[in-house]
Design goal:
six-stranded mixed sheet, alpha+beta, four-stranded mixed sheet, 10 helices, single chain, binds magnesium ion
Length: about 325
């Protein structure tokens, strides 16, 4: 299959959603009806660094590449809009598996109402997938940065953490945990097909979130970004982290502390969010409206950096991704 044929096959997989996209794949550039504020993020996943083609199906790689980019939009409180994709494909991957990758990406695009509006395909010695995603907002105050945490704020986490790291241990055969089939599948799904918290991000932003970040590299690293950008100290109690079902067993069977695994493992794509204490109940209710739960795991103080209460050593997540 030649490159042109592959591109035509990819175009047939993609669908245009909504009224915003005026011109897209098939033209030299995409044309979109803009809203006042464009929110753009780019993420790159490389074989051997962020996933292994030996353990990850191409469709899961495509899904995850879009998920990581959309998760950053969620963390800003933006409405997800369009994605643009660069695929660097090794010859041995073959056209059919390249198409599977695009189909996996398109599945998440359909679920989130996103249009994959264009992209590029190049030959490469290793599979590398870059996704730039653009989200939209009507005004600047709809959006939330990492820099708004203030002493006295509460620190919360949506959903559950540690599931992706536990799923990866299972995928690699690094644990002998005895799990039910359902628990095992849920953890593997968590790793292979993370769901960006787009609804929660928008609603929490509207409910007055002061600072927000998505947990992509692991809480130990991501929470530190919020502390640094806010010029404050974040205290997070490991004992209060909401662990996904099965994380305990998987971690212990692998000789790891479950809460430390959850704090250092990346790829959960939950949101860490800071609220003024008087917004506590509103924030909890908002998270429920968005189909998730908010668990309070710590506070903001007037110092600097991140304190992980209950950690036996200095912890960090993935820092070179
Ligand atoms: Mg991020």
């Amino acid at each position: 299959v030649g490159e042109l044929e592959l591109i035509e096959a990819i175009e047939r997989v993609l669908e245009r959603r909504g009224e915003r996209v005026v011109r897209w794949v098939g033209d030299d550039a995409a044309v979109v009806r803009a809203r006042p504020f464009a929110v753009t993020s780019i993420d790159t996943l490389a074989d051997g660094v962020h996933f292994e083609l030996s353990t990850h199906a191409p469709a899961d790689v495509g899904w995850k590449a879009l998920a990581t980019a959309l998760s950053d939009l969620a963390a800003m409180g933006a409405e997800a809009g369009e994605a643009y994709v660069s695929l660097a494909l090794p010859g041995e991957l073959g056209a059919e598996r390249a198409l599977e990758l695009v189909r996996g990406m398109e599945e998440l695009a359909a679920e989130t109402g996103v249009t994959v509006g264009g992209g590029d395909v190049v030959a490469s010695p290793a599979l590398v997938v870059s996704v730039a995603a653009t989200g939209w907002a009507e005004s600047e105050d709809e959006l939330v940065g990492r820099d708004g945490a203030r002493p006295g704020d509460l620190v919360g986490v949506t959903g559950e953490v540690g599931g992706s790291a536990a799923g990866l241990l299972l995928l690699r055969g690094d644990t002998r945990a005895e799990l039910s089939v359902d628990e095992r599948e849920a953890l593997l799904l968590r790793h292979r097909r993370p769901r960006p918290r787009l609804a929660a991000g928008r609603l929490l932003a509207a409910a007055g979130a002061r600072a927000m970040i998505d947990l992509s590299d692991g809480l130990a690293t991501d929470a530190r970004h919020v502390a640094r950008r806010s010029g404050a100290e974040l205290i997070v109690r490991l004992a209060d982290l909401p662990l996904a079902a099965g994380v305990d067993q998987v971690a212990l069977a692998a000789g790891r502390d479950p809460r430390e695994l959850a704090a250092t493992g990346g790829d959960d794509y939950e949101l860490l969010v800071c609220f003024a204490p008087e917004r506590r109940e509103a924030a909890e209710q908002t998270a429920r409206q968005a189909g998730t739960a908010l668990t309070w795991v710590g506070e903001v103080r007037g110092g600097q950096g991140l304190v992980l209460e209950g950690a036996t050593e200095e912890l960090s997540g993935w820092e070179h991704r």
